[in-house]
């Protein structure tokens, strides 16, 4: 190979590396931001810390995300709210019973969110929402509301198929979300400084909560209760 071609090849290789590096930067910044937001909270995390952890300058960070608030929103979309299209598609194509869907929903939520770093976002919002009402409104709009809409669809599917009896759909939603939020809070509070198997085993906890809820929703359980009352 001639010297000119060798230099050209090296130049192309260097350009390719720079292009790959540029393309990788948003993802690296989001990863770094997620780590720091979970470790320190929103208020205590500084933009220059995120940039330093990602290995770029503060100016580069602001090229992609004009403010810390926009960076946080991008983290939430990347890790949670951007996945609702996928989750709704799974709902629409699910072929099992509605009880199986509830079990699947709770199990998969833990595997894809609860057991990951992204679960720390929930604790962050609970602890800091009052100080950042705009972020709280964003989280309500892009995470909480779509999540509740999906759970409502799951429960309504059970009602429509005659599998569930739900007396108050608006509040039945929280029967599913509340145990999961509790598990996250334990993970990021007491669980963070206790032995790995304390205080809860997530898989056993989720399975227990799911069966308790399903017994309450089940039309068969309601029929059994009616029979018992008739015997008295």
Describe the fold and architecture:
The protein has 232 residues and is mostly helical. It has two domains: 3-68, Homeodomain-like (Arc Repressor Mutant, subunit A), CATH 1.10.10.60; 80-231, Tetracycline Repressor, domain 2, CATH 1.10.357. Helices cover 76% and strands 0% of the residues. The protein contains eleven helices and no strands. It has helices spanning 3-40, 47-54, 58-64, 68-79, 84-93, 98-114, 120-128, 133-160, 169-187, 202-217, 219-231. Helix 1 (3-40) crosses helix 4 (68-79), helix 4 (68-79) runs parallel beside helix 8 (133-160) and helix 8 packs across helix 9 (169-187). The longest helix has 38 residues, at 3-40. The protein is elongated, with a radius of gyration of 23 Å. The protein starts with a helix and ends with a helix. 21% of the residues are buried.
Brief summary:
The chain has 232 residues and is mainly α.
Set down the secondary structure blueprint.
Layout: H1 3-40, H2 47-54, H3 58-64, H4 68-79, H5 84-93, H6 98-114, H7 120-128, H8 133-160, H9 169-187, H10 202-217, H11 219-231
Assign the CATH class of the largest domain: Mainly Alpha
Proportion in helices: over 70%
Q: What is the CATH architecture assignment of the largest domain? A: Orthogonal Bundle
Unreliable runs: 2-21, 221-229
Amino- and carboxy-terminal Cα gap = 96 Å
């Amino acid at each position: 190979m001639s010297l000119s071609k060798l230099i050209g090849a090296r130049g192309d290789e260097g350009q390719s590396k720079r292009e790959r590096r540029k393309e990788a930067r948003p993802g690296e910044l989001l990863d770094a931001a997620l780590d720091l937001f979970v470790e320190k909270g929103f208020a205590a995390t500084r933009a220059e810390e995120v940039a330093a952890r990602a290995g770029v300058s503060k100016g580069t960070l602001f090229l992609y995300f004009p403010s810390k608030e926009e960076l946080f929103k991008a983290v939430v979309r990347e890790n949670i709210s951007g996945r609702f299209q996928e989750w709704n598609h799974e709902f629409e194509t699910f072929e099992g019973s509605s009880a199986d869907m509830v079990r699947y929903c709770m199990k998969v939520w833990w595997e894809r969110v609860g057991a990951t770093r992204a679960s720390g976002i929930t604790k962050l919002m609970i602890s800091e929402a009052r100080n950042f009402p705009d972020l709280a409104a964003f989280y309500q709009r892009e995470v909480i509301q779509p999540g509740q809409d999906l759970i409502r669809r799951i429960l309504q599917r059970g009602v429509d198929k005659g599998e569930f009896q739900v007396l108050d759909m608006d509040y039945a939603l929280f029967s599913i979300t509340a145990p999961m939020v509790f598990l996250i809070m334990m993970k990021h509070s007491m669980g963070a400084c206790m032995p790995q198997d304390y205080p809860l085993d997530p898989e056993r906890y989720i399975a227990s909560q799911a069966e308790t809820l399903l017994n309450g929703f089940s039309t068969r359980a309601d029929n059994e209760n009616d029979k018992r009352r008739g015997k008295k």
